[in-house]
Each structure stands twice: as C-alpha cells, then as structure tokens.
C-alpha cells in the first residue's frame, strides 16, 4: 500500500523546502521493516519458477569490476563473459550491463559492440564522492563521450548527513544533465546513512532530483545491500510512482553473492514494488561473483549435475 506524504513543488527547491518535504515523509518502522524483509526472505518457490528466476536474475546482473588493478585485458574478458556467460550453453541470457571505471569505458564499449549490452560507469569521484562538482561533471561527460549508456554516481554523504539537502539535489540535477541520453543511477551508500529514515529520505531526494535508478551502495562500504534497506528503497519507488506516475529503478549492490540472495531480492521486488519492476529496465543487481553461482545452480537444475566453481571463469 503506497505511503501518503506531502508533495514537493520543484519550483520551491530550497534547502528549507527540501528539508520540510524529506522530514515530512513517514518514519520507517525499523522493527517492521526487518520483520517484513525476513518474512519475504523465507518464501520458497517451485523448481520451475526457480529456473525462470535464475534466468531473470542473470539478465539483471551488472557484471562489475572496480579494482585499482583493472586492465584492458580483464575488462575485455569480463565483457566476453557478459555476452556469453556459459559458452557450453547458449540459452543462458546475457547480463544487464558491464560496470567499470570511467577510463575503461571505451574498452568495454568496443568489446560489447553488437551484443546489445550497455556499459555502466561509476563516475563522480567514486566511491567517496569527495570532489568539486566541476570534476564530477567532467568525469561524467567523458564517460558518456566514450560510450557509457549508464552513469552510477555517488551522492555527497557528508552534505546529506549535515542537512545540506540542496547541495545533494543540485549535484544530482547537474550530473543528470551531463548524462545526456545516458541513464543515471544514484548511489546512496546506505551503509553510511546511519538510519532507515535517512535511506527513505535519500531515496526520495534522488528521485525528485531526476535519478533514473536508486542504488544502495558502492560495494566498498559495509553493510551494503541488506534486505531491509532494499525493501525501504523499493517502497520508495513504489510510492514515487503512485505520486508522480514515473517508474524509477532500484539497484542493490554489495554482498549479493549467491543464487539464494538473488532470488530473495526478486521476491522483495515482486511483493513490494510489484511485478512491473521485474525487468532489467527497473531492477539490477550489482555483482562480480554472483554470476558464477547463478550459472552453477542453473546447470544443476537443467542437468542434475552440480559443476564445481572452477568450471567457470573467475572474475
């Protein structure tokens, strides 16, 4: 059931107006959120449904490498796996996108040419977000110019936590403009937001500023994509759609490593935002090691044989 809240008038974008809007949102029932997430995580699904869920989860993976030691060769290898996750089984769907640092965008775009797979880039001084706006915008424009179809930006958590909502809002607006036709995913870094109320507020702030997706985390801070946090963000996009008619995507990232984790997230989506969000256009999973477990479980379901972890390439 959508949660009613006071409307926010875009023309009244001041820190005072933003604060009144965000602090006017209903508070999160922390005990209830944890209980609801726990209840949904225990739901079981039939084998036939699980097979479909695994393929859906594969199609939602943003296959990611965000290491200082990344090389063009590693990125090209990752892109090959993204396009053909299991060379022995061409019925396996390709992933949703490949996510890399800005300097690797051109390499990834070239490697993925003709596959229909987009390239996401973590611009805006990832993972800290601690850089002047001019630097963040230049980072974004270069990634887009090199062919990124999605930009994953990080908000200034310091500004948010100190109550400078206007700065966060203005930065998201500016980065969205710099994205041009590319989609913007706004990373909240929920592990640093302290409270569930802040997660809800940051979610609504990001959506009101023009984000196309809201993303839990960089994957560099723990805790990251916990079920209660993902639940709260799914509630936020559901309520935003009810209020505005605009669907915003959700991307949990960090700590989702097993098929069981992925299926739990799909259940969260279906039961919270609704089945319309069960598409790569509106739900992604940021992961590096998850894909191999999905492939192993898929093979087990279809053949009865459980391949070892060394059967697939290690990313």
Description:
The structure is a single chain. The protein has 315 residues and is α/β, with parallel strands linked by helices. The protein has one domain: Aldolase class I (TIM Barrel). It is 46% helix and 10% strand. The chain has twelve helices and eight strands. The chain has an eight-stranded parallel sheet with strand order 7-6-5-4-3-2-1-8. Strand 1, helix 4 and strand 2 form a beta-alpha-beta unit. Helix 3 packs across helix 11, helix 6 packs parallel to helix 8 and helix 10 packs parallel to helix 11. The radius of gyration is 19 Å and the shape is globular. The mean pLDDT is 93.
Write the layout of secondary structure elements.
Layout: H1 15-22, H2 30-41, H3 47-60, E1 61-64, H4 72-83, E2 97-100, H5 105-112, E3 118-121, H6 133-145, E4 150-154, H7 157-161, H8 165-179, E5 183-187, H9 196-208, E6 213-215, H10 227-244, E7 249-251, H11 259-272, E8 285-287, H12 290-303
Parallel strand pairs: 1-2, 1-8, 2-3, 3-4, 4-5, 5-6, 6-7
Give the class from helix and strand content and strand pairing: alpha/beta
Strand order of the largest sheet: 7-6-5-4-3-2-1-8
List segments where confidence is low: pLDDT < 50 over at least 5 consecutive residues: none
| Helix content bin | 40-55%
CATH superfamily: Aldolase class I
Overall tally of structural domains: 1
Tell me the name of the CATH class: Alpha Beta
Q: How much is the average pLDDT?
A: 93
Short description:
By secondary structure, the chain is an alpha/beta fold. It is built from twelve helices and eight strands.
């Amino acid at each position: 059931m959508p949660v009613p809240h006071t409307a926010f008038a875009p023309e009244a974008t001041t820190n005072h107006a933003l604060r009144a809007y965000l602090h006017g949102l209903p508070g999160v029932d922390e005990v209830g959120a944890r209980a609801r997430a726990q209840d949904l995580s225990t739901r079981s699904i039939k084998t036939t449904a699980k097979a479909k869920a695994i393929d859906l989860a594969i199609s939602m993976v943003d296959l990611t490498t965000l290491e200082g030691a990344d090389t063009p060769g590693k990125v090209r290898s990752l892109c090959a796996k993204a396009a053909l996750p299991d060379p022995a089984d061409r019925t396996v769907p390709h992933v949703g996108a490949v996510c890399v640092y800005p300097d690797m965008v051109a390499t990834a775009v070239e490697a993925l040419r003709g596959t229909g797979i987009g390239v996401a880039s973590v611009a805006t001084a990832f993972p800290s977000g601690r850089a002047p706006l001019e630097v963040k915008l230049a980072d974004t424009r270069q990634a887009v110019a090199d062919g990124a179809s999605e930009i994953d930006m990080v908000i200034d958590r310091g500004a948010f936590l100190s109550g400078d909502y206007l700065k966060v809002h203005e930065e998201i607006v500016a980065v969205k403009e710099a994205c041009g036709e590319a989609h913007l995913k706004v990373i909240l870094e929920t592990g640093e937001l302290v409270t569930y109320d802040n997660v809800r507020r940051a979610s609504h702030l990001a959506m009101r500023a023009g984000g196309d997706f809201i993303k839990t985390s960089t994957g560099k801070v723990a805790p990251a994509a916990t079920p209660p946090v993902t639940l709260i963000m799914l509630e936020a996009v559901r309520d935003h759609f009810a209020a505005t008619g605009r669907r915003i995507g959700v991307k949990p990232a960090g700590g989702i490593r097993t098929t069981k984790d992925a299926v739990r997230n799909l259940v969260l989506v279906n039961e919270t935002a609704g089945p319309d969000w069960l598409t790569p256009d509106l739900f992604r999973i940021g992961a590096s090691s998850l894909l191999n477990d999905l492939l192993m479980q898929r093979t087990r379901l279809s053949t009865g044989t459980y391949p070892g972890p060394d059967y697939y390439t290690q990313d």
